[in-house]
Design a protein that fits this description.
CATH topology of chain A: F1FO ATP Synthase
Shape of chain A: elongated
Structural class of chain B: mainly alpha
Strand order of the largest sheet of chain B: 1-2
Number of helices of chain B: 10
Number of domains of chain A: 1
Strand content of chain B: 5-15%
Order of helices and strands of chain B: HHEEHHHHHHHH
Oligomer: heterodimer
Number of helices of chain A: 3
CATH architecture of chain A: Up-down Bundle
Shape of chain B: globular
Helix content of chain B: 55-70%
Order of helices and strands of chain A: HHH
Number of domains of chain B: 1
Number of strands of chain A: 0
C-alpha cells in the first residue's frame, strides 16, 4: 500500500503522466492486432491440420496477414516515442 | 525519495530514443568529414553499417557463384537454397510464372534487408541499419516504383488507375467512398506500412536486447539482494531474445519481399 501510494505520488507529474500515456498508447494499440494475429494463427493451424498438402500455401498467406496486422501494433509503438 | 521506493530503485537507466539520436547525430563522424564541392562526405556509424552490409551481401554472392558447378559446394548450396526459397515463396505464388522478371528485384530486396538486419545481433555492431527510418523508406520507394511500373506497363496508365481503384461489384452509390479508400490504400498506406514495419521491428528488437543486457548488469551491480536474484533470469531472457531477433530479421526480410511481390502481383493481375 505504501509503495503504491508513493508510486502514485511520483506519477502525478507532467513527466509521469507522459510516461503513463506512452505506455497506454502502445498497450491499447496492441490489443486489436493481438486478437487479430491470434485468430489468424488459429485458423491457419486449423487449415494446415485439415489439409496438410496445402500447408505451404497457407503458411505463405499467413505470413502476409501477420505482416499486415502487425503494422497496426507497430504504429502504436512508433507513436509512443513521438508523443 | 520514499524509503519503500528506495529499496526497489537502482542506478540503472533504461535505454531511450536518446541513445538512437547519439548514433543518428549527423555530426558524429568517425572519419572526416571532407568537403567535396557542396557536399560534406564522411563516415559515421550508420554509413559504416550500410557499407559493411553491402560488402557482406556482395562478397557472399561473389564467392558463392564465382565458379558455379553442377554439383554445388557448401557455399553455393546455401546461396542456391536461398534463391530457390525466394523463388518458390514470393515470385511464383504471388505473381506467377509471368513475374519471373521481378525475381532479381525481389531476391535483392530480400538478401539486402537480411544482410542489414542480421547486424543487429552480431557482436561489435549490435545495430541494424534499418533502425534508421531513411533506409526502410528508400527500400519501400523501390517497391513503390516497382509495383506502379508493373501495373502501368501491363494495363496502361488509365487502365491501371481504373484497375486498382475501381473494384468490381461495388454499388454506384458507394463508389466515391470506395475510390477514396483505395487511393489512400494504394498510394499512401502501402509504402508507409512497408517502411514503418521494418523500421519499428528493428528499433523494438534493439530496445528489447539492450533492456535485457543492460538490465542484467544493472541488477547484478545494484548491491541489493532482492534485485540481484533476478539478474540470471534477465541474462537467460537476453540469450533467448538473441535467437528471437535472428528469427525476426529473417521474417521481416521475407515479409518485405513477399508483400512487394503481392503488390506487384495485384497490379499485374487480370480483371478481377
Amino acid at each position: 500500500m505504501r509503495i503504491a501510494l508513493a508510486l502514485l505520488a511520483q506519477a502525478m507529474t507532467d513527466e509521469g503522466l507522459t510516461a503513463i500515456g506512452k505506455g497506454l498508447v502502445y498497450g491499447l494499440a496492441a490489443i486489436g492486432p493481438g486478437i487479430g494475429i491470434g485468430v489468424l494463427m488459429g485458423k491457419s493451424v486449423e487449415a494446415m491440420a485439415r489439409q496438410p498438402e496445402y500447408a505451404g500455401q497457407v503458411r505463405g498467406t499467413m505470413f502476409i496477414g501477420i505482416g499486415l496486422i502487425e503494422a497496426l501494433a507497430l504504429f502504436g509503438f512508433v507513436l509512443s516515442f513521438i508523443i | 525519495m520514499n524509503p519503500a521506493l528506495l529499496a526497489l530503485s537502482t542506478e540503472f537507466e533504461a535505454p531511450t530514443t536518446h541513445d538512437f539520436s547519439r548514433w543518428f547525430d549527423p555530426n558524429a563522424w568517425m572519419l572526416g568529414p571532407w568537403n567535396i564541392g557542396p557536399f560534406e562526405i564522411g563516415l559515421n556509424f550508420i554509413y559504416l553499417l550500410v557499407l559493411v552490409a553491402m560488402a557482406s551481401f556482395l562478397a557472399f554472392f561473389y564467392f558463392a557463384f564465382r565458379k558455379p558447378k553442377v554439383v554445388p559446394g557448401k557455399l553455393q548450396l546455401v546461396a542456391e537454397m536461398g534463391m530457390d526459397f525466394v523463388k518458390q515463396n514470393t515470385v511464383l505464388p504471388m505473381i506467377g510464372p509471368q513475374g519471373l522478371g521481378y525475381f532479381a528485384l525481389l531476391a535483392t530486396l530480400f538478401f539486402y534487408i537480411l544482410a542489414g538486419n542480421i547486424y543487429e545481433i552480431i557482436p561489435g555492431f549490435n545495430f541494424s541499419m534499418n533502425s534508421r527510418l531513411a533506409f526502410p523508406v528508400v527500400l519501400a520507394l523501390v517497391a513503390y516504383v516497382a509495383y506502379h511500373t508493373a501495373g502501368i506497363r501491363r494495363h496502361g496508365f488509365g487502365g491501371y488507375l481504373k484497375h486498382s481503384l475501381i473494384l468490381p461489384g461495388v454499388p454506384i452509390a458507394l463508389m466515391p467512398l470506395m475510390i477514396v479508400i483505395e487511393v489512400v490504400q494504394v498510394f499512401i498506406t502501402r509504402p508507409l506500412t512497408l517502411s514503418v514495419r521494418l523500421f519499428a521491428n528493428m528499433v523494438a528488437g534493439h530496445f528489447l536486447l539492450s533492456v535485457f543486457f543492460l538490465g542484467t548488469i544493472g541488477l547484478m551491480f545494484s548491491g541489493k539482494p532482492l534485485l540481484m536474484v533476478f539478474s540470471p533470469f534477465s541474462a537467460a531472457m537476453a540469450v533467448v531474445l538473441v535467437g528471437f531477433e535472428l528469427f525476426v530479421a529473417g521474417l521481416q526480410a521475407f515479409i518485405f519481399a513477399v508483400l512487394t511481390a503481392s503488390y506487384i502481383g495485384t497490379a499485374m493481375s487480370e480483371e478481377h
